[in-house]
Each structure stands twice: as C-alpha cells, then as structure tokens.
Amino acid sequence: MLSSVKKQSYFTIAIIVLFSVFIVIAFVFLNGVTSKLNSETESLVHDMVHGNTQAINSMVKADISTVTNYAACSSKYKSRIRVELMTELKNLTEDSGLLNIIIIDEKGDVISYRNEDINVSYRDYFKRAMNGEIVVSETIYSEPDGRMVNVFAAPIYGDYQRVIGVVAGMNNSDVYKEILNLSVSGHEANAMGYIIDSNGEVLMAGASLFGDYTPVGDNLYQSDFVASFTEQELAVLKDEFNKKDSHGMIKSTDNNGKEYVAYYATLGVDRNLHYFAVFPADVAYGKLDGYVNKILVLFLFFIGALIFTVVAYLIFTYNSFKALRKANEEITKVAYEDTLTGYGTWGKFEKDAKYLLSQSYRKFAFVSFDIDKFKAINDMFGHEEGNRILKQIADIVNRNLNNHETFSRINSDNFYLLLVYKSDEDMIDRIKKIIYALEYEITNFAPVISFGIYRITDTKLSIRKMGDLADIAKRTVKYGERSAYAFYNEEMLREIREEKHIENEMQNALDSHEFCVYYQPKVSLGETPYLMGAEALVRWVKNDTVVSPAKFIPLFERNGFIVKLDYYVMEQVCYAMKTWESLGYKDIMVSVNMSRVHLSNPAFPDTLKSICDDYAIPTSRIEIEITESAAYESLEVLTKVFEKLKSLGFHISIDDFGSGYSSLNMLKDLPADVLKIDRAFLTESVNNKRANDIIAYVIKMAGSLGMDTICEGVESDEQITLLKDLHCDMVQGYYYARPMPTHGFEEILKGKHETIRINKEN
Ligand code: C2E
Ligand code: CA
Ligand code: CA
Q1: Which ligand is nearest to the CA of 625?
Q2: Lowest CB count within 10 Å: 43, 148, 155, 756, which one?
Q3: Could you identify the atom of ligand 1 that is nearest to the CA of residue 595?
C-alpha cells in the first residue's frame, strides 16, 4: 500500500518535471521560431523593398535619361527653327510617356510645343538645373497641365561649358504614386513609399495610407517619423542619406505613439535620391504575428491537452488509489477474518502472537489442537454439521481465553492458542478446563481432541516454527481413545527426525528385501500341545540389527506405506508356505496381520486372493488378523470386508481383543473365525479374580458365537494352566517360542525343536 502511494508521488513529480521541461522547450522553440521568422520577414521585406527600389530606379533613370540625353544635344536650341524644335519636343514627349518636355532659356522663358507663354525662373528645379544639377523636383503644381507633377530637369551646356538653358520633363506624379507604395502580403498596399533626397526633402510620395496624416510629411528630418529619434540617431540617418550607396531599416514611434518600420535604399540614378518605404509596425510584422499566433494557439492547445491529461491522470490515480485502499481493506478483512468461525485467521494470529510475545515479562505457551477423525464427522453428518461444530469450538475457546491471549483456526479442524501460564500444573488445568468445555458444550457430538503444548522458551523462533513444535507434541497423543495432551520435548523432535529418516529409506528397504518375515508358532492347547501354525510378523533387518515393527508400523499406517508392506509380507508368507509344502508340511496355518488402512480399499480382499493364487496357496490356510479397533471406524465397512474375505475362503481373526473398547456384543455379527485375546488382558488375569472372570466369560461367549479363541503373550506355566482350565483353544507366546526367521521355524517344523510337537501328516 505504502509503496503504491510512493510510486504515485514519484509519478506525479515526474509529470511535473516533464511539464516544466516541456514549457522550457516550448519557450525556447517559440523564441527560435520568432527570431527566425523575424529575420525571414525582414529579409522578405528587404527583398521587396530592394525590388521596388530597382523598379523606381529604372523609371527615374529612364525619365532622367530622356531629359539629360535631350539636353546633351540641345546646345544649339536657340538657332533652331522654332517650328522644327517644337515638333521635335512633341515627338519626344509622346515617345517618352512624360506629360510634357520643354526647353527653358536662361531667363526662365519656356519653349513648349504647346505654345505656353510662361516663365519658370522662380522654380527651384530651374534654378538648380541652371546651376548644373540634374534635378528631380518635388511634387509641384503645374499650371499648364493642371495637375501635380514631378519635374526632371537637366542643364543645357553651350560653349565653354556655360549653362545656356534647361530641358525639363514633367511627369504625372500619379505614375510614381502607384509604384512607390509597397504590398508585402497581397493586393492592398501596406507600406507608403517615398523618394527622399539627401536633405530629407520628400520629392515624391505614394498614395497616403494613413488618411490625411502622413508620418513623414514634406521633410523627413522635420517629420513625426523622427520625432522619437535622438540627435545622434538623426545624425546617423542623415549620414546614411548622404552615402553614395546605403540601405537599411529603421524603426520609429511617432508623436501618437504609433510604431513604424521603414526601409531605405539609395536610388542608383542619383546618390541624393533615396527610396523610403514606411510600414506601420503591425503590418510589417503582420505575417510574423500570424505565424506566432498560430504557434501560440497550437502551443496553448498543447498545454491545455497536457493539463487535461495530467488532471485526468490525477483524478484517475486518486480514484484507483481509493479503490486500492478499499480493496486493501477488504483483503485485510479476508486475510484476518476466518469467515467460518468469525474469529481470526492464521495471519491475524501470527500478527497478534508476535505482538503479545514482545511483552516479554509474561510466560506463554503455544497450544495446538485438533479433533481426531474430524474428516469422519464431515463424511457422516455433512459439511454443514462439521462447520457448526467448528464454530462452536471457536466460541468455546474464545470464552476460555484470558487477557493477553489469542487463538485462531489455522485450517480445517486445527486450532492454535497462545496462552499465558505460570506453571505446568496451571497449564494442565487450563487444558483440562477447555477439554471439559468442549466435551460438554458441543451439542450432539463428543469429540476426541488432541492437544500439543509448546512452552515458549525461545521467543526468537518464528510463530510458524512454534506452531510446528506444538504440532509435534500433538501428534504424539493423536488417535488415542480420549482427549489428551502432551508437552513438547526435545525427544519428540528426535523421533520426528528419525521418522523422516525412516520415510526416506522405506521404499529402498522394501526393494532390497530388508523387510523380513518372522514366524511365531501358534500352539493348540489339547492334552498335548501341538503346533497349529504361526503368525507372520515383519521385521526390518538392516546392518544386522533387527528393528521391531512397533518402530515403523504406526508411521507406515500414517503415510500409507503399510499397504505395500502388507502385500509384500503376504507374498513372502505364500512363498515360505510353498517351500514348506515341498517339505511336506501342508497343513500349517499362517496368520498375517493386515492394517485397518486397507479397509477403505474395495480391491483389498481380491488383491490378497490374487497373491495366494500366484503361489497356489489355498486361502483357507491363511488367517487374516485385523485389530479390534478397526471396528471404531465403521463396523459396517468392517463387516463387508470380513464377508468378502470369508467368501474368498480366508480365515479371519479379530486381533488385540480387549485392548480397546469393543465388546463382544458389538463384534458378534462379524463373520470372524478366531478371537485373539490381547496380551494385556492376560498379564492382569493370573492374580486378578475379576480379570480372570472376564477372560473366562469371553472364551465362553466366543465359543457360543462359533469362534475359536487364542491367547497371545503367554509367558508362564500358570498362564498355560489357567487357559487350559478356561478351555482356550490356542496360545501364542514366548512360553513356547519367540518370533523367528523362516529357517528357525523350519527347524521347528522338522521337529528339531523339542518343545513343540508337530502335527505332521506324513
Ligand atoms: P500383534 O499382531 O499383536 O503381534 C503380537 C506381538 O506380541 C508381536 O510383537 C510379538 O512379538 C509380541 N509377542 C508375542 N508373544 C509375546 C510374549 O509372550 N510376551 C510379549 N511381551 N510379547 C509377545 P511385534 O512382532 O513387535 O509386533 C508388534 C505389532 O506390529 C503386531 O502386534 C502387529 O500389530 C504389528 N505387525 C507386525 N507385523 C505386521 C505386519 O506384517 N503387518 C501389519 N499390518 N502389522 C504388523
Ligand atoms: Ca497379530
Ligand atoms: Ca495382537
């Protein structure tokens, strides 16, 4: 949870950083684009101005050439025939496209083909031309033409380079008006063009773009255009206008605060003439602004999209964070609440136990318990009933807890408790109290419960490990007849390790024939006892040591290996019987122990039969021993198996009778042939009148039910005498012989063993 929050804040920071970087890049980019566009616009405008300068230049040049050329060949104009001269002027005028070309004598009198009788000696252009200048006049009003004109004037030289007159060409100023203005981005003119001389005098001006007002006026140097210029700036401008060839750009702000940009270029025809184009600043940069605007809009759109994305992301993460927290709460509930009991789970127990144990001043015990054969409860009464019992157990345990204690159902019917205790006695009392409560408070069911207790001596162990130790203790009392408890000790761990070791080796031991069958004679108690047969008892012989079945059979019953082992013993028995047959001993009965584990396997009787068939041993010579306690699991199943075994011809013996709780009344319907009275019974019977009576009763009852009786564990003369008196049919015990390997039993068969008379046919 924490890490996901961290992740989210990292992500948010990353987004912010990215965002900032983006903005910086955008500004740098925009700046770059702006200045690039700026310079591009400038050079574009410059190119256009340059183009226009060329055009104006050639126009002016053409007009000036017309007058200068004519002036050059007019030195004799005074002696020319007047009519001829006028015709010449008329033709020249028409060819040149000028309004009128005239000759003016030194007094200012005009010679014109239009016969105008006027004097222009007062005109500035006349005076200057008489001074030898080639003149382009400012725009003036021409009376004969009735319009505004510009005059191009050139001196006529007579002898000795004396100016003897002037040739002047009037040009319609409208012709220039049209060409002077400039259009940068289309049809409309954006810039107002001027021709200005070195004195700042405006000679020609394009049509006004600024209404009545014009920022330049009659003289640039005195105009609004330079109003904002410092003296120095103005000097620089004047200097520029006095250069032979100059061009450039200047910016200005007029009195009204309006900004202008002007481009200027010297007209090649005369160093004193300059083309001057004035743009309002917003027009000059209009194109640029358009671009910048577009980019700005794009940029804003981008920023908008980005902000939208970020906000959407934040909303989304916030929502998913909320959902995550909710899910986490739910998971915590699932992880910590056992839905079946309503109490804690293993996870909760582990957490709470850790916390409680950290309060080191208390003494704690870790208790594990479960119900023996709980699976059977589910099978018999259904899962609902099983669940009801588990819930009841949890309630009872919960009621029996003190402060600083906790418990939890770990799985199935397994519970863990963490209890505070002072002494072992104290602990035992607690357990007994819980057992009592469980036995009496659970309705409709009397559970057998096994408790394992680990006194927590090492608090550094993990909770799971502590549970393992309590479980080990529990296993040592499991499958007893009543609820019980055991304290964990080191010995148990050693045993567990030994069991692990055995489990690792068992299959290999079976394959390499380390399991051997021993035989213990069974003796008939007649006038003279004789050998009836034997019980097959398995041994694990490894490295010349003989391991008793008590060490491994219970383990094999738990892990299921007993099934393989029993069939193996059965085969070994058949093999031995075959050998004995060949030696002539065909009547020997051998009883073979079969674990109750087989009962759940429907193929069990047939498997035994097929083993006998493999060795051609009649099933009637085999007695199957199954312990009395097998009846607890299901008398019904036991009956069925017995019936099947009987139908296949086997003899059946109920082993260990009297060691448990079964009564003869209970077993009377089982189709068994032999009742095998447990050794424990016998140990008590000799000196105990009551035990004596019971054994007598059992033998009598068995007889009346059609069963033979055999007593095992007979060790003494007294026991033999007693059993003879009570008409017990057979005995088995150290009194006659201990279990022995095959060859030992063969010796007995062959009569080499004195103590037992052998019932030999031939
Ligand atoms: P069990 O079937 O009750 O076997 C009788 C046990 O009593 C044998 O112990 C035997 O050695 C012992 N015994 C016989 N006479 C006397 C006596 O006079 N005094 C004393 N104190 N003991 C006597 P063992 O062979 O150690 O077998 C123990 C148990 O292991 C058997 O009890 C049986 O339940 C089981 N077992 C042995 N072999 C097999 C087998 O092949 N399959 C299965 N499933 N269980 C087996
Ligand atoms: Ca037995
Ligand atoms: Ca027995």
Answers
A1: 2
A2: 43
A3: 44
Alpha helices in 478-586 (DSSP H): 490-511, 549-559, 561-582
Nearest CA to ligand 1 atom 24: 549
Model pTM score: 0.53
For ligand 1, what atom is nearest to the CA of residue 517? Answer: 41
| d(CA 507, ligand 1 centre) in Å | 22
SS3 state of residue 663: coil
CA of 537 to the centre of ligand 1 (A): 6
Tell me which residue has its CA closest to atom 15 in ligand 1: 733
Listed in sequence order, the residues at least 6 apart from 185 whose beta carbon sits closer than 8 Å to its beta carbon are 286, 287
Closest residue (by CA) to atom 11 of ligand 1? 739
Tokens 């300059």 locate to 274
Ligand 2 centroid – CA 388 distance (Å): 40
b (16+ CB within 10 A) / e for 502-517: beeebeebeeeebbeb
- Residue 595 CA to ligand 3 centre (angstroms): 12
Amino acid at 493: L
If phi > 0 it is left, if psi is from -120 to 50 it is alpha, else beta; for residue 186 that is left
pLDDT, position 758:
43
Query: Hey, which of 72-86, 169-183, 318-332, 543-557 has the most confident mean pLDDT?
Result: 543-557
- Rounded CA separation 280/260 (Å): 4
More confident residue, 418 or 134: 418
The two beta strands, 449-455 and 364-371, are antiparallel
Average pLDDT over residues 659-681: 86
CA angle 195, 198, 203 (to 5 degrees): 30
Has residue 685 got a pLDDT over 80?
Answer: no
Structure tokens at 352: 């709470």
User: Alpha-carbon distance 425 to 432, whole Å?
Assistant: 10
The one-letter amino acid code at 556 reads F
How remote is the C-alpha of 294 from its chain's centroid?
42
Helix (H) or strand (E) run with residue 366 in it: strand 364-371
Closest CA to 614 of 573, 565, 574, 569: 574
- Residue nearest ligand 1's atom 16 by CA: 713
Ligand 1 atom closest to the Cα of residue 569 is: 41
Report the nearest atom of ligand 1 relative to the CA of 714. Answer: 18
SS3 567: helix
Residue 214 amino acid letter? T
Longest C-alpha distance within the chain, in Å? 197
Task: Using the atom order of ligand 1, give the atom closest to the CA of residue 656.
Answer: 3
Helix, strand, coil % over all residues of the chain, rounded to 5: 50, 20, 30
Q: Which residue has the tokens 């909770």?
A: 463
Q: Would you say residue 290 has pLDDT above 70?
A: no
Q: In a mutational test of the pocket of ligand 1, which residue from 537, 541, 572 has the highest number of ligand atoms less than 8 Å from its CB?
A: 537
Q: Helices 604-614 and 561-582 meet at what angle, rounded to 10?
A: 30
Ligand 1 pocket, CB under 6 A: 520, 537-538, 548-550, 553, 562, 566, 569, 593-595, 625, 655-656, 679, 712-715, 732-734, 739
Q: How far is the CA of 341 from the centre of ligand 1 (A)?
A: 44
